[in-house]
Design goal:
The chain is mostly beta strands. The protein has two domains: 122 residues, Gamma-B Crystallin, domain 1, CATH 2.60.20; 249 residues, Tachylectin-2, Chain A (5 Propeller). The chain has one helix and 32 strands. It starts with 5 loop residues before the first strand and ends with a strand. 43% of the residues are buried.
Length: 406
């Protein structure tokens, strides 16, 4: 597809790259034209280096008409991503380029004179696909205690995009918006079961600016209701905030978190009012060596929820079996390589065998055929009922350009 060339006409003093060679242009003329594009518009010029006739739009255009294949340089001064397509009707088959918002005076020179349509979207991935990833789940033989937010016995995924919107994917390949914006202000997001006592799965989020902890009650349809404050502050001192399930055995979901300053692991029991009770120490130290915790449900078949933890220094995955308001001795689940996963997601039974599973999303370290640099792949691991996992199955690579899952 090529590499974008963005220049500031004022600072390059008239020298810009054009194709594979250097061309000298009139610096004053280029600067004047580059600054002519008004804020809130995408502008294109018939000449290179923001010279010649200027075209502008602030709406998506499926067919550029007389400007088809005429734009040789452009700038995006909107607040959206501008998808620049080489075919009409936003067709991705001919190639496209996502152009981010820029300041006045800059411009791009790729692609050159091949632009046929332009679309404005909130996130880069929407140039070529939906804002949410493709997600399919098998139907579980029974209603799960967690992972299913709309009661259809399919494992669901909640997705946050780069624009701060929240999406609900129900396991049938579809998705819908459940949070219109502002969710990038939540720097920890977790779910596992019912905290409010109404039998529906809820979300818990930490507000980055205040350190407050909020409960977002599930409605039973995949949406969430009005949030409720359950932690008035201080939660920025905790890492790996994780909804766990019922560890205390009182029928209510609980929360665990690592204290950053000490590495201690604390249990916060759920209460009948949908709040959290007095915390209890369940790990005396060393938990700062874990860079991911996930409450995966009952993985070993003993009727208690369990914990998976990833060891940062080794990339090993460990099972900590649940006990009565405590954790048992750990068992090795994965001998290494788990640092190639950007996200570990526990969303119940996605394989349809009645046992909880694990899904992950890869990062840049993930290798295919021996070559790293493959972020955004969904890997599915089936729970075997003994605390261990099946070999991971790579399903699709559409999980890139997103900003969190639970």
């Amino acid at each position: 597809m090529g590499r974008r060339l963005r220049q500031s006409a004022a600072t390059l003093a008239g020298l810009v790259l054009a194709g594979t060679g250097l061309t000298t242009v009139n610096a004053a003329s280029a600067a004047a034209d580059a600054y002519a594009c008004p804020a809130g518009y995408f502008c294109g010029w018939s000449g290179e280096s923001a010279t010649g006739q200027m075209y502008k739009t602030n709406k998506s255009v499926a067919d550029l008409g007389s400007w088809d294949n005429r734009i040789r340089s452009y700038v995006n001064r909107t607040s959206s991503i501008a998808c620049v397509y080489e075919d009409k009707n936003y067709a991705v088959s001919g190639g496209y380029f996502p152009d981010r918002p820029a300041r006045a005076g800059g411009y791009s020179s790729y692609p050159t004179a091949t632009t046929s349509s332009i679309k404005f979207v909130p996130t880069e991935r929407e140039c070529s696909q939906s804002a949410y990833p493709l997600w399919f789940s098998e139907t579980s033989p029974h209603v799960s205690g967690f992972g299913d937010m709309n009661g259809d016995r399919k494992a669901d995924v909640v997705v946050r995009d780069m624009a701060g919107r929240l999406w609900f994917s129900s396991g049938d390949g579809t998705g819908r918006l459940i949070g219109t914006g502002g969710w990038n202000g939540i720097n920890a997001l977790t779910r596992h079961g019912d905290f409010s006592g109404d039998g529906r799965e809820d979300l818990i989020g930490r507000e980055a600016s205040t350190g407050r902890l909020w409960l977002y009650p599930g409605t039973g349809s995949g949406s969430i209701g009005t949030r409720k404050l359950i932690g008035s502050g201080g939660w920025n001192g905790m890492s790996n905030i994780t909804a766990f399930g019922d560890l205390t055995g009182d029928g209510r979901s609980d929360l665990i978190a690592v204290e950053k300053s000490t590495g201690k692991l604390w249990l916060y029991p759920g209460t009948s009012t949908g709040t959290l009770g007095s915390r209890k120490l369940i790990g005396s130290g060393g938990w700062n060596t874990m860079n991911a915790l996930v409450g995966v449900g009952d993985m070993n078949g003993d009727g208690r929820p369990d914990l998976y933890a990833r060891e940062a220094s080794t990339g090993k995955l460990w099972l900590y079996p649940g006990r009565s308001a405590a954790l048992g001795g750990r068992v090795l689940v994965g001998s290494g390589g788990w640092n190639a996963m950007a996200n570990l997601i526990a969303n119940g039974d996605s394989s349809g065998d009645g046992r909880p599973d694990l899904i992950t999303v890869t990062n840049e370290k993930y290798a295919i055929d021996g070559f790293p640099g493959n972020p955004g792949w969904l890997i599915s691991y089936q729970g075997l009922g003994n605390g261990l996992l099946s070999r991971g199955e790579r399903t699709n690579g559409e999980w890139w350009g997103l900003n969190g899952f639970c």
